[in-house]
Every structure is written in structure tokens, then in C-alpha cells.
Design brief:
Number of strands: 39
Shape: globular
Structural class: alpha+beta
Oligomer: single chain
Distance between the termini: 46 Å
Bound molecules: 2-acetamido-2-deoxy-beta-D-glucopyranose
Strand content: 25-35%
Largest sheet: 9 strands, mixed
Helix content: 10-25%
Number of helices: 16
Amino acid sequence: MPLLQSYIAPPLARDIALAMRSFIQDFTNRAVFCLGAFLASTSLLSDGSQTTMGIAAVNAQTQYLLGLGIGDITGPVVETNMMGYASLAQTDTGLYMRQRSRAWIVADSSNSSNRVVMINADIAMGDTGIRRSIVANLSATYPDLYNNANIALISTHQHSGVGGYLENLLPQITSLGYVKETADAIVAGTVKAVLMAHDSLAPGTLSVGNATVVDGNRNRSPSAYLANPADERALYEYDQDKDLSLLKFDDADGNARGFLSFFAVHGTSLYENNTLVSGDNKGMAAYLYEAMEQPDVMPGNNTFVAGFTQSNVGDTSPNTLGAYCESPGESYDGMLCEFNTSTCGGATEDCHGRGPAFEISDFASNMIIAQLQVDGAQAIMNGTASTAPIEGNVRAVHTYLNMTWHTFTLPNGTTVQTCPPAMGYSFAGGTTDGPGAFDFTQGDNSSQPQNPFWEIVKGAITPFPDAEQVACQDPKPVILNTGYAHTPYNWSPGTVDIQMFRIGQFVMLIMPGELTTMSGRRMRNAIRTQLIANGIVGDDAYVVIAGPANTYAHYVATQEEYGVQRYEGASTIFGQWTLDAYIDKYGSLVSYLADNATGAQPPSDEAPPDLTGEAISLRTGVVFDSAPLFKSFGDVVADVQSSYTSGETVFAQFIGANPRNNFRLEQTFLSVDQDVDGAWTMVRSDSHPSTTYNWTRVDTITGTSNVDITWTIEDGTPAGTYRIQYFGDAKAIGGTITPFVGTSSNFTVS
Ligand SMILES: *[C@@H]1O[C@H](CO)[C@@H](O)[C@H](O)[C@H]1NC(C)=O
Ligand SMILES: *[C@@H]1O[C@H](CO)[C@@H](O)[C@H](O)[C@H]1NC(C)=O
Ligand SMILES: *[C@@H]1O[C@H](CO)[C@@H](O)[C@H](O)[C@H]1NC(C)=O
Ligand SMILES: *[C@@H]1O[C@H](CO)[C@@H](O)[C@H](O)[C@H]1NC(C)=O
Ligand SMILES: *[C@@H]1O[C@H](CO)[C@@H](O)[C@H](O)[C@H]1NC(C)=O
Ligand SMILES: *[C@@H]1O[C@H](CO)[C@@H](O)[C@H](O)[C@H]1NC(C)=O
Ligand SMILES: *[C@@H]1O[C@H](CO)[C@@H](O)[C@H](O)[C@H]1NC(C)=O
Ligand SMILES: *[C@@H]1O[C@H](CO)[C@@H](O)[C@H](O)[C@H]1NC(C)=O
Ligand SMILES: *[C@@H]1O[C@H](CO)[C@@H](O)[C@H](O)[C@H]1NC(C)=O
Ligand SMILES: *[C@@H]1O[C@H](CO)[C@@H](O)[C@H](O)[C@H]1NC(C)=O
Ligand SMILES: *[C@@H]1O[C@H](CO)[C@@H](O)[C@H](O)[C@H]1NC(C)=O
Ligand SMILES: *[C@@H]1O[C@H](CO)[C@@H](O)[C@H](O)[C@H]1NC(C)=O
């Protein structure tokens, strides 16, 4: 089978500017995907008549009611910890691109009560509290249509979004507790996306296809993967899944309205030292695709909705060049990290994964990993890769499963159990995408960043698990015994969401954690076998994994990988039988997806408790803003030059105010305006990848701050007169918030 391995040749300079320019230049002339084994081996592509046959089949297929929507979910872009790396030092300072939720609704046209809502949010992971609020809103608004079973909150698993929204305590440690504003923004924007999808419901057809994206990911724990049985590994060409699967949404006339795709790659293209809020590679891919479809529409105002959902992401990395030692002065500087331990000179800190454009910047790598996914999706959307029509009923099943001491029987008859949640030592060591992520466990050490939240909660941790827990978690050496920590509230979820959607022969396993590559394969294969054996779906059953979704239950490694205890094994919180427990549970529920299923839901364990009422938050609000003496908010501090050429970066600095005063959801903190026939027309917003917004506190006592705005002029930008505007909101000492606008001088682009 032909494998095209190339991605763009690394350009020369080292910043976003050049990343942007090279991206635009290479946009049209690259071929970066190849088709799946199925297509290559059956030569469908070389047969010109196939396209015609495909269209005929589509027109005859079942019609569904389809809806698509999008909403802005960007919380506080400054003074807030970012979520993903769990690094205390990663506090956001501004915006690269807004975070969005995207939603797709599919309903049976014969009985539209049978419907599913798939939400793909630009967040690090699904969360019980966020999902509870979304379900509560939608089921109150449309009691007969939306419920706890048919709404899935799936994340892109990006690592550069706003943090603090998770309900359990452990992921709140670096954000100094719960940040309600973040959670509220995610809930409101997601509800908006679903309501937009609801309002756009119209008859249409669905189809499914896949393409191979060879260069889009790399295994970051290959030594753990090698612990899986050789005969099992021999079934697969790669130690990562390279298939991008795509569910295509067409209207009744066969015109594309959007899609939802599935591809496993960590949202860690932007490094831990980035402080500008973004959607990482999947958020970028969605933007790029939507902008390609509707080039004249501002980001977020689009009606074509492109979804890049996460899949069995556990051991994947977008840092496709591999992990290298950054250890200046050491003999191993610039060499590959030690294979089994990902260390440099015995320590994890210096070992860093490198993205494809490492020589330029992580922003450039982010663009490449995004574009690879876009190209794979486009091949399916435009018929270069063939698709199969989706036909059959829409069904949803959901239940809660208490994973603490959950007992079940393996297929060979042996009874085993899962354990109360706990983290192993390698968890604190982090990964090559973000080394030493949880160094806060060192506690008091004054060499560590101060974390007042940790000081409050650390006493609740039982450092010494009891013998039963030690035996259950074996061979994991427990470092954080979170299953026993319920003070001040639960540290880790003990109860998880189990959920599956069926749309005809297409079945989504919506998973509460990050499955490794081999875990995902075992899961898909096992459930697919059950679906076919029970006559729920025919031999054409197409099964995908979506997650981390709904609740964040950390990682899911295979039992063999668990034995190796790298990061993914150490973070498999319910012990070595976690994956088998999921296979058993999901497999036991397939009958709820059958044509004759009534919509009744299976018996359930108790739902996880609402912890937000007791959540601690140490983050302080905005006190007030002020401008320096004889200055006003929005005044220009550093003005633009009078003229630029494409490839150059326009820079302007303004007297600013704290953007936490108004998140400007569905709006923008900046605009690049062009003079079109004497009228200013906005041509770029704060979500365009060519712009950045960076806020700096100048003086805490006086409340002064500056805002830096950049625009890197892309190739092909029309010559003309332009200006930059900054939209801010200032908080007075009395608490009144007043909007203002700053405007740069005019400049020309030639
Ligand atoms: C649902 O959320 C929307 C958007 O935030 C809000 O306008 C509406 O009032 C909410 N409805 C209910 C029933 O909570
Ligand atoms: C890709 O599509 C082909 C054809 O439908 C199918 O045989 C193959 O299993 C699909 N790949 C995945 C990963 O589902
Ligand atoms: C961020 O970290 C990467 C990887 O360690 C490094 O190459 C890069 O120079 C850092 N960037 C900044 C701005 O410090
Ligand atoms: C990695 O570990 C495996 C299993 O313990 C061992 O066989 C192999 O030699 C190790 N590789 C290296 C490079 O140390
Ligand atoms: C289909 O997509 C591929 C891959 O992105 C692209 O190379 C090709 O030009 C597209 N074909 C059409 C007809 O748009
Ligand atoms: C989960 O199960 C354990 C063990 O049976 C039990 O102690 C615990 O109370 C259960 N948790 C909930 C929330 O029901
Ligand atoms: C059943 O399979 C498990 C997992 O491979 C294994 O540990 C156990 O020993 C097996 N039991 C029997 C009776 O073979
Ligand atoms: C605390 O910091 C000191 C000085 O940096 C270091 O020598 C010591 O090992 C640290 N202790 C812990 C528990 O990290
Ligand atoms: C659905 O059909 C299957 C297979 O025909 C049957 O075993 C099952 O009892 C039926 N279920 C219901 C709820 O009718
Ligand atoms: C439509 O589906 C719902 C949910 O499955 C079911 O309760 C209802 O009876 C169905 N209505 C008809 C007319 O079949
Ligand atoms: C934001 O501005 C501050 C102060 O000028 C600067 O140190 C920092 O590097 C800037 N950050 C970004 C991402 O541009
Ligand atoms: C800036 O451009 C606008 C629109 O072309 C024009 O009306 C205005 O006079 C210009 N300002 C300056 C100072 O040149």
C-alpha cells in the first residue's frame, strides 16, 4: 500500500510569523495522507465509476434529521491556570484562538424521539459537573427530547485551554481550586452550540469513511506497547492507530453540512511553556476546515461544522520527531531520551518530545499536525476516499458504574475486581509531552512554586494505602491514594459514565478515560464482536472510540502495559483490570442498542455527587483597573509602523484592562480592519491564527496593564489601508464595568 510520508519541509526562521507564512504557501500543494488498506487493496479509487455508484447509493439511503452547531466556550484568558499539563507555572496571559464547543444531533426521521447529541468541546477532558449542567439545561428546555442517556460530552483533549472547571479535586490543585467562571463559560457556550444544532435540524443523510494519516502521531511509550503479546502486535502495522474515521453529514440534496471525525493524537502540540489560550491541533484543524468551507465568515459564525474528536489517545503524541534530551552541557544533550524510562541522565525533566516543525516553533508544529488531520478529513469528504452510507436506527445507552471494588468475570471464567482510584509513581514523573507534571507532590519544598491550595488539601491524602489496596493495585506502587481521599471533597471520580450511541451500523463507544492504542483496539474489537454476535448490527458494523468524555477517569492501559508502569499505566487509576471491566460492561449493554430496544435504560449505580457546592476556590477576582496618569484605557502605547509587506508582523500596544471583566464570548478582543471603499471592515478577529492577544499586568497596586496585539500578514493579503482595534472592558473601584475601544494608526500593506 502506498504510504506518503512527507510533510512540509521545515522553513527557516523561528516564530509564529514564519509558521503562518509557510503554512499558507504550502497549503495547496501538499499530499500528506494516504488511503486505508481497504481502499488500496480493493482499488476502488482507480475505478472512475465508483464515484457515480457512491452517489446513487447515497440518494437511496435512509434519511435522518440532522443538526449542527457551534458555540464559544472561552473562559478567563488571563490569571488562570491552563488545563492539561497540570503545571502550576502555566498561567494564561492571553489568546491565540478561542475554544469552541461543536454539536451534532442525529434523530431517526421515523421517530425523532430517538436521537443522539454528540458534543465535541475544545477542552482537556469531559467532566461530570459540566455535563450535569448541560444535561440539566437541555432536558429542562426540551424534556421529551434530551436526557442523561443521549447527550455525550467529548473533549478534544487539548492542553492549552483555560483550566479550573473540573469537579474532582486532583485536577484542581494547579488551578488553586475550582474556577466557576471557566465552568460557566463552557456550559453556556456548549448549550448554545446544541441549541443551534437543534434549531438547524433538517432531513439529510449520513455516511462513514476513513483515511490514513501516517505522520499525525507517534507512540510516546513504545516500551510499554512492546509488553503486549507479540502475536497481537503482529496484527497491526503500527504501534499507533493511523486511521482517521469520519461521519459525514449531508443535506437532503447531498450537499455537505459538516462532519465529525475521530483520530487519536494528544492535544500537546503547544508546549507547557505556552501561555496563550488555544484549541491545540484539533481546535486548529476544525478552524482550518471551517475557514476553507466558508472563507468569508469570521471564526465561530460558521454554519459548516467540522469536528475533530479525540479517540484512544492514551499513548499517542503529536511530537512526531521523538523525544530528545535538552540538557545543555551534558554529554547526552540533543540525544534521544533513554528508551524504557524517557529520562536524560536519570531524570525526566530534560526529556522533551519534538513536533514536526521543532526547528521553528511549537506553533508551527501545531499547524502541521492540524493540517494532516484536515487533509485526511478532506479526502473522505470530497470522495477521494470512499464512504459507506449509514442506514438504520438511532439508539443511546448510558449508565453509571462504581469502579471501587467492582467485581466481574473475565471471559475465561476468572473473577477479578477493580480498585479504589490511585496514582502510581510514574504519574508524578509526567510524560515526554510534559515532563514532571505533578511535581507539586513534593509538598512543602520551598524550591517548588508556592501552592496554597496544596497546603490546604494535602493532609487529606493517605500516603500509605492499606494492604487490600496495595494488593489490588499491584504492581503499581501507589503515590497518591486518591480513592481514599474524600476531604474536603472527592479527589478522583469513583463512579464513571458508561455510554454508547448507535446510528445504523455506526457505533460510538464514549469512554471516560484515555485508552492506549492497544486498549482501544481490544475495546473496539470486543464490542464489535458482541454487536454482530447479538444481531444488533451486521458485518458492516463500524465502531469508534470517543473520549476522554463525560467524566475524567484518567488512563486505561492494557494489563500488560500496566505491568510496565510508565505514565499511562501509573495513571490507570482503577488497577490492572480497568480495561477488562470496561469491555465487560460495555459488552453487557449492547442489547440496549438493538432495533427493538424501547429507550428504557439499564439499572445504574448511583450518579456521582455534585461537588461544586463545596468546591474551594482560592483565585481572587479582579479588584479594579486603572490607566496611568494622563492616559486613558485604549490609548496607544506603541503604535504600528506606517507600512508593511506580507510576512511581516504588525505590533501595537495599548493601555489595557483585565479581560476577565468581560470574556466577550462570541465576540472578539481585537480586530484587524481594512478600509474597503472608505468604510472599515473587520477582516481578522482574535480567533484567526495570524493574530495574538497578550495581556500584561504593569502594576498590581495601581491596577494598570498593557495589551499587546500582533498580526502576521499572510501571503495573499490584499494591498490596502488597515488598522488594529482593541476591545476592552475596565472595572472601576466601585465595580462598574465599562467597555472601551483602542485604535492604532492606519498602516498600509503592500
Ligand atoms: C440554558 O442555557 C441558556 C444559555 O446559557 C440559557 O439562556 C437558558 O436560560 C438556560 N435554560 C435553562 C432551562 O436552564
Ligand atoms: C476503514 O474503512 C474500511 C472500509 O469500510 C474498513 O474495512 C476498515 O475497518 C475501516 N477502518 C477502521 C479503523 O475502522
Ligand atoms: C518552550 O519549550 C520548548 C521545549 O522545551 C523550547 O524548545 C522552547 O524554546 C520554549 N519556548 C520558550 C518561549 O521558552
Ligand atoms: C528496556 O526494557 C526491556 C524489558 O525490561 C529490556 O529487555 C530492554 O533491554 C530495555 N531496553 C533498553 C534500551 O534499555
Ligand atoms: C480532495 O482532497 C484531497 C486531499 O485533501 C485533495 O488533494 C484533492 O484535491 C481534493 N479533491 C477535490 C476534487 O477537491
Ligand atoms: C462504590 O462502591 C463502594 C464499594 O462497594 C462503596 O463503598 C461506595 O460507597 C460506592 N460509592 C458510591 C458513590 O455509591
Ligand atoms: C484468565 O485470564 C486472566 C488474564 O489473562 C489470567 O490472569 C487468569 O489466570 C486466567 N484464568 C484462568 C483460569 O486461566
Ligand atoms: C527540596 O529542595 C532542596 C533544594 O533545592 C533539595 O535539595 C531537596 O532534595 C528538595 N526536597 C524534596 C523533597 O524535593
Ligand atoms: C429484542 O430482540 C431480541 C432478539 O430477537 C430478543 O431476544 C429480545 O428479547 C427482544 N427485546 C425486546 C425488549 O423485545
Ligand atoms: C418513539 O421512540 C420513543 C423512544 O424510544 C418511544 O418511547 C416512543 O414510543 C416511540 N414512538 C412511536 C410512535 O413509536
Ligand atoms: C506577553 O507579554 C509579556 C510582557 O511583554 C512578555 O514577556 C511575554 O513573552 C508575552 N507573551 C507572549 C506569548 O507573547
Ligand atoms: C485612516 O483611514 C481612514 C479610512 O481610510 C481615513 O478616513 C482616515 O483619515 C485615515 N487617518 C489618517 C490619520 O490618515
